[in-house]
Amino acid sequence: MLYIKCPYCGLRAQKEFSYGGDATVKRPNINEEVSSENWDNFVYMRKSPRGKHIELWQHIAGCRQWIKVQRDTATHEIFQTAKVTEEIR
Amino acid sequence: MQKYSVFSLIKNAFSNHQNWEVAWKDPTPKSEYDVVIIGGGGHGLATAYYLAKEHNIRNVAIIEKGWIGGGNVGRNTTIIRSNFMYDANARFNEFGMDLWRNLSQELNFNVMFSPRGIINLAHSDAQMNAYARRGNSMRLNGIDAKLLDRDEVKKLIPMADFSDEVRFPIFGGLMQPSAGTARHDAVAWGYARQADDMGVDIIQHCEVTGFDVVNGKIKGIRTSRGDIKAKKVGLCVAGSTNILAEKLNMTLPIETHVLQACVSEPVKPLLDGVVTFGAGHFYISQSDKGEMVMGGDLDGYNSYAQRGNLPTIQHVLTGGLALFPFLSRLKMLRTWGGIMDMSMDGSPIIDKTHIEGLYLNCGWCYGGFKSTPVSGWTFAHTIAQDQVHELNSELRLNRFSTGHLLDEKGLGTKTWIG
């Protein structure tokens, strides 16, 4: 069981959360011309690194907020969590 | 090579089975090969075998970080099927079924292919309609499909919960009678033994650390056991695809996730074929040893751990109990995880890349085992001829940018989009 520290609610079990994927992917700006390549990169292409990964989770069975989690994809260790508006470095 | 037969078995019994030839050698890597296959799993071994057999390319090495058969080919739940709706997937996998049917004879190794049938359960009229459509599509591609009503399903799996109280009542199901199971280790070992006999070097415990690419052309690879020159390099590394892609500065439409499976203690034969309970995120078959082999959902987050967490096992088995209440009396023997190269549309990629001489075989999601022979066969063709075969002509890397997705059903990393 992963335990994720929600920045709003505190430490909660993984079962309360739903995964949202790589948090470093940036959506192309709204109302700007988007090339096919950029759209392709945004929708489909992922680095999926082995090691530290910054990702989105939603506290779906809690406060329902989206949060950022920095987690190791090889050991599942969680280093840091933050509100979605905050940066993880 | 010593042929395996009842006579060789009797002959070796007289020497207490001490004098069997080794099934494959343990060679030191040469400095140069015509083709290097990275990844000694089922697909890599099959690719090397078909390169030697179909294309007479025998100066081939398989580079494996661990040991052959230690990855997903030894971790899957051994299901073989071709019950696909889209033409590209159906033709590809039905060609594979033909290879499976003759595989034990071809490899002189009993892979225990057992076409005992697979049933996908349906729980609503709409799902029955969808299955009727899929079944018809399968039959148009020459694949056997049978739409079962509730009573027919009950005859085949009377131990399922057919009471009125269930959340997902069984309306019927779609069956592919020619689907089945095989012994996964034997598939890896059978291909390895034949490939080795035809001159392929199987190099284990050798990790690829980098690639030698000059002017957009592959020249060789760097490994923990020295540099190896190669005219062509094929990647067959499933869950490690993204790690090697990073070394090549490539980004792929793939995320790596962990998938778990589990087996119960062995019991007497009670379940003939494979049953999938999509609504409960659960599928099950019974091994020849009697264990109930079960699986279901991904853990649902990026992972290279080859082990998962308990909530997913609980979730999967909760679905299992809803379908087969008798499972509550069984003890779990073991659970394990494997890392899946989840493509974004749920279908695989077998293609050339923008680097000349570098070929890609990945994106198998959780369905790689059934395609082992056909994947090897088409990948060998793609490498040898430097062009895709008709069978993998739609399994291209660029289909994501051109919009020609093969989103067969809700698979991939974000199943809710499927």
Structure explained in plain terms:
The complex is a heterodimer of chains A (89) and B (418). With 89 residues, chain A is mainly beta. Chain A has a single domain (3-27, 34-83), classed as Folate-binding superfamily (Folate-binding fold), CATH 3.30.2270. Chain A contains one helix and six strands. Chain A has one helix at residues 36-43; strands at 3-6, 10-13, 18-22, 52-58, 66-72, 78-83. In chain A, the strands form two sheets. Chain A has a four-stranded antiparallel beta sheet, with no helix packed on it. Chain A has a two-stranded antiparallel sheet with strand order 1-2. In chain A, strand 5 (66-72) and strand 6 form a beta hairpin. Chain A starts with a strand and ends in a 6-residue tail after the last strand. The model of chain A has no long low-confidence stretch (mean pLDDT 94). With 418 residues, chain B is α/β, with parallel strands linked by helices. Chain B folds into two domains: 6-82 and 84-109 and 184-253 and 345-402, FAD/NAD(P)-binding domain; 118-181 and 255-343, D-Amino Acid Oxidase, subunit A, domain 2 (D-Amino Acid Oxidase, Chain A, domain 2, 2-Layer Sandwich). In chain B, the strands form three sheets. In chain B, strands 1, 2, 8, 9, 10, 11, 17 and 18 form an eight-stranded mixed beta sheet that branches. Chain B has an eight-stranded mixed beta sheet with strand order 5-6-4-13-14-15-12-16. Chain B has a two-stranded antiparallel ribbon with strand order 3-7. The radius of gyration of chain B is 22 Å and the shape is globular. Chain A binds chain B through residues 1-2, 13-15, 18-19, 21-22, 36-37, 40-41, 43-50, 53, 55, 71, 73-76, and chain B through 242-243, 246, 251-256, 300-305, 309-311, 344, 400-401, 413-414.
Order of strands, widest sheet of chain A: 3-4-5-6
CATH topology annotation of chain A? Folate-binding fold
Number of strands of chain B: 18
Describe the sheet with the most strands of chain A: 4 strands, antiparallel
Give the CATH H-level superfamily of chain A.
Folate-binding superfamily
